Amino acid sequence: MSDATTHERAIESEIVTDFKDKMSYGSYLQLDRLLSAQVPISDPEHHDELLFIIQHQTSELWLKLMRHELLSARDLIANDELQVALKRIARVKHIQRQLTEQWSVLATLTPPEYAQFRGFLGNASGFQSYQYRAVEFLLGNKNAGMLRVFESHPEAHELLETLLHEPSVYDEFLRYLSRHGFDVPASVLERDVTQGYRFTPELVDTFKVIYGNPEEHWLAYETCEEFVDLEDNFQLWRFRHVKTVLRIIGTKRGTGGSSGVDFLKRALDLTFFPELYAVRTEIG
Ligand code: HEM
Ligand SMILES: N[C@@H](CC(=O)c1ccccc1NC=O)C(=O)O
C-alpha cells in the first residue's frame, strides 16, 4: 500500500537503526548533557521557569556562535581578508535577528507568573553574562569595570581580560583603512585599546572620502554599512530587552543591583562606531 493510502510514511529498510557501535545524532550533539542542564530552582517548581531558563540558554548558545564569528572576522580584517570577514559579519547579523526575535517568546511571561519565581533567582542577572560582555568588547564597547563581577569566575575573567587588551573589530578596520591608503590619525592607530573608543573627528573626513565615491572604494564602503547594520541590530536587541523588562517587572530594581529599566535605557545612548554615524550628517 502507498503512503498516501495509509497516511503513514513507510520507514525505508536501509534506514540505520543500530547505534551500539556507531555515532548517533544524540551522541554527536551530546544531547544528554545539553538536555539535563535545565534545572529549575523554584520550589514548588513553577511551570514558567523552564521558559525562563531556555530563553537564556538559547541566547547564550547564539552568543557563543557570535563570539566565534566576530573573533574570526576581526582576525580576517587584520589579515587583509576583508571579503571573507564580510561573510562572517553576514552570519552575525542573522544571529542577531534570532536573538532579537526571541524576545517575543519571553514576552509571554506575565508579571504575576514571573513574580512567583523571581525571588529564587537571588542576585543572578544578565549583567553577569560574560559572553554578552565579550561580544560588546569585540565590537569596541570596552569597559574594564565590567570585569569586577567575574572575580569569582576565573575563566570568564581571563577571557574578558584578554579581549580587553586586544583590538576590536573596529580598531582592526581602522588599521586596515590606514594600510590601504586612507588617512587614519596615529592617535587612533596607537590608541590604548583597553579604553572605550573615543570619537575622532578626523575620521569623519576619511569616511566622507569613502561615502563620496562608493564605486571607487566599494569594499571599504560595504564594510562601513555592514558595521552600521551590526550596531543597528545590537540596539534593536537592547530596545527589546528594555521593553520586555518594562512589561514584566515595570521599574523595579534589578536582581543584579541596578536601578533596572533606567540603567538599561542608558545603554541605548552608546555607540560602537561613532564616526560612521557622524559621517551621515556630512553627506549630500
Ligand atoms: C524576565 C526577563 C528579564 C528581566 C526582568 C531582565 C532584567 C534585567 C535588568 C533589570 C538588568 C539590569 C541589571 C540588574 O540590575 O539586574 C538586566 C541586565 C541584563 N540582562 Fe536582562 N532581564 C531579563 C531577561 C534577559 C534575557 C533573556 C537575557 C538574555 C541573555 C538578558 C540579558 C541581560 C544582559 C546581557 C544584561 C546586561 C545589560 C547591560 O549591561 O546593559 N536579560 N536585565
Ligand atoms: N535581572 C532580572 C533577573 C534576570 O532577568 C535574570 C536572572 C537570572 C539569570 C538571568 C537573568 N536574566 C537577565 O537579566 C530581574 O531583575 O528580574
What does this structure look like?
By secondary structure, this protein is an all-alpha fold. It has a single domain (49-282), classed as Methane Monooxygenase Hydroxylase, Chain G, domain 1, CATH 1.20.58. It contains 15 helices and no strands. α4 (49-78) runs parallel beside α10 (169-179). The protein is globular. The mean pLDDT is 97. Bound molecules: protoporphyrin IX containing FE and N'-Formylkynurenine. Protoporphyrin IX containing FE (HEM) binds at residues 55-56, 59, 106, 114, 125-127, 129, 132, 241, 245, 248-249, 254-258, 260, 263-264, 267. It comes from Leifsonella bigeumensis. Belongs to the tryptophan 2,3-dioxygenase family. Substrate binds at residues 52-56, 114, 118, 255.
- Categorize the overall geometry: globular
The average pLDDT score comes to: 97
Distance between the termini: 70 Å
Low-confidence stretches: none
Strand and helix order: HHHHHHHHHHHHHHH
- What is the level-2 CATH architecture name? Up-down Bundle
Task: Tell me the radius of gyration.
Answer: 23 Å
* CATH class bucket: Mainly Alpha
- For the secondary structure, the number of strands is 0
Kindly report the CATH topology.
Answer: Methane Monooxygenase Hydroxylase, Chain G, domain 1
Number of domains: 1
Helical region count?
15
Percent strand equals under 5%
Helix content, binned percent: 55-70%
**What structural category do the secondary elements indicate?**
mainly alpha
Q: Report the sheet with the most strands, covering strand number, pairing sense and barrel closure.
A: none
